[in-house]
Every structure is written in C-alpha cells, then in structure tokens.
Design goal:
Length: about 100
C-alpha cells in the first residue's frame, strides 16, 4: 500500500510503501480411498467445508475419479482445525478418509 506526505516545498511525496503482509494460505485436499462411503464424504464437505449439496457431490466425485480434490483454502490454524475435524469424524465412523495440507 502506498502512502503520501508533504515535502518541505509543499509537494506530495510518495512515502516508502508500508506493506501489510497477509498470512500464508494452505490448500486442504480430500484424498480418495476404497472404503469411505460417498455419502459420508458429501456430509463432510457440507458440514466441515460449508459447501452446497451440489458442490459437495461434484467435489466428492472429483476425488473418487482423480484421487484428490481441493476442499478449501485457509490460514494455517483453520486448515489444521478442519483437517483434524475430518480425521476425528472419520475415525468415529470407522472410515479411513484423509485430508492433506499444502502451502499455496
Ligand atoms: N472411493 C470411495 C468409494 O468408492 C468414495 C470416496 C470419495 C472416498 C472421495 C473418499 O475422499 C473420498 N466408496
């Protein structure tokens, strides 16, 4: 972001840029496996990643066909929390569903 200040003879001068750094973002991917049910993956996408039912079904099918799909992009804390939630809910149901995180 650029800033301006007045110099001694009244002109405008561009101040050194004052960068506000945004935090690094992390992609969270859902990974395919042979045992987790399609319905459970759709539920996870709706409940944890706040996707619509239609988008959830599309993302689930993309994972099923291609091995993985992007579920969302977040700051590290949020990405870790979502990954842990997926792990916990999957374990509760006895599914091996996994997420992976990748720095953008
Ligand atoms: N491959 C699974 C099946 O045939 C469905 C599935 C989709 C599993 C997406 C995991 O992240 C996943 N039941």
């Amino acid at each position: 972001m650029e800033d301006f200040e007045l110099n001694p003879d009244g002109g405008l001068e561009v101040k050194e840029s004052q960068e506000i750094k945004s935090p690094p973002l992390y992609k969270v991917f859902l990974l395919n496996d042979d045992y987790t049910t399609m319905d459970f993956v759709i539920n996870i996408l709706e409940e944890v990643f706040h996707k619509s039912p239609v988008e959830s079904a599309q993302i689930m099918l993309h994972v099923h066909k291609n091995g993985r799909a992007l579920a969302g992009v977040y700051i590290r804390d949020i990405a870790e929390t979502k990954t842990a939630k997926v792990q916990k809910l999957s374990l509760q149901k006895g599914f091996p569903l996994k997420c992976s995180m990748e720095k953008e």
